[in-house]
Amino acid sequence: MHNEKGYIWYNLGTFSSDKSSITWQPGPFPLMQKGSHPHLAYLGNGRILLTYDNDGKIYAATGTFSSSGELQWLLTNVYVCDGHYPAIAYAPSYSLGDTVVMVYNASGGYNTDLYSLVSNVIVTGGRSWTDTMGPNQALGPNQSIYSANGLYQFVLQSDGNLVLYKLATGSAPQSVLWSSGTAGKSVTTCVMQGDGNLVVYGGAAVVWSTGTSGNAGSYLVVEDEGDVVIYAQDGTALWRQGAAQSSS
Predict the structure, then answer these.
(1) What is the model's pLDDT at position 114?
(2) What's the rounded Cα separation, in Å, for the pair 219 and 119?
(3) pLDDT along the chain (248 residues), means of 10
(4) Which of 12, 73, 148, 180 has a CA 20 to 30 Å removed from the CA of 133?
(5) What is the pTM of this model?
(6) Whole-angstrom distance, CA of residue 39 vs CA of residue 60
């Protein structure tokens, strides 16, 4: 694996039966993500974890090998933390849910960060990347939650837009299912408020909201079918956007 002109490339090879040589497949193959200093870790059961840095921020990708030996990227371009030169230092049992230690350079010194793989989704910095935002939980710029199956991402982008993505799988590219239309706005946080309203703020100013206040205890879920939904405590859907809305 290497980087060239800012993009990460990789090769696939097969060991001989006695492990004395490797037969390389034609390549290299482009991962089509800008980045540098790629580090690949094998997590067992055909699963791999790639970390790399881009403009001072560390990203990760997960992949799996098919029964025929082809590498398929399941989740890509996941922001982990600020830093440079990521390297996986330890993976105890090499299975889903195990803690992994990543060593990286931040502000001239080396730090460690803990994260796990849960349904192909990265969790980091003590915050669990689940499929739900409960009352008073918030996203900052470039923070996300994901559907439990790892195929859909709900992210507050640094450009001010709140976006629901269908992530790239196999040959299918990443696509936008819904957005708040707030790109170019100055935003600081997206809050699932205790009153049931999902609000994007720029400082103290409201930039956008779902208009679902008056429903205390409501919560937001990114569903496996590709919808993002706000549910009342009794299970009633108060607000829904995504794949189902796009197809209706």
Answers:
(1) 62
(2) 21
(3) 63 76 73 72 72 82 74 72 76 55 72 55 39 84 81 91 86 87 95 95 96 93 92 92 70
(4) 73
(5) 0.51
(6) 9
Residue type, 14: T
- CB-based burial of residue 245 (10 Å sphere; 0-12 exposed, 13-18 middle, 19+ buried)? middle
Rounded Cα gap, residues 32 and 12, in angstroms = 16
What pLDDT shows up at residue 231? 93
**Which residues are within 8 A (CB) of 229 and not within 5 positions of it... i.e. 6 or more apart?**
220, 221, 223, 237, 239, 240, 242
DSSP letter for each residue of the chain: -EEETTEEEE--EEE-TTSS-EEEPS--EEEEEE-EEEEEEEEETTEEEEEEEETTEEEEEEEEE-TTS-EEEEEEEEEEEE-EEEEEEE-SS-STT-EEEEEEEETTEEEEEEEEEETTEEEETTB---SEE-TTEEE-TTEEEE-TTS-EEEEE-TTS-EEEEEPPBTTBPPEEEEE-S-TTS---EEEE-TTS-EEEEETTEEEEE----S-TT-EEEE-TTSEEEEE-TTS-EEEEEEHHHHH-
User: Residues 188, 140: contact at Cβ < 8 Å?
Assistant: yes
Rounded CA separation 120/22 (Å): 28
- Determine the residue type at 225: E
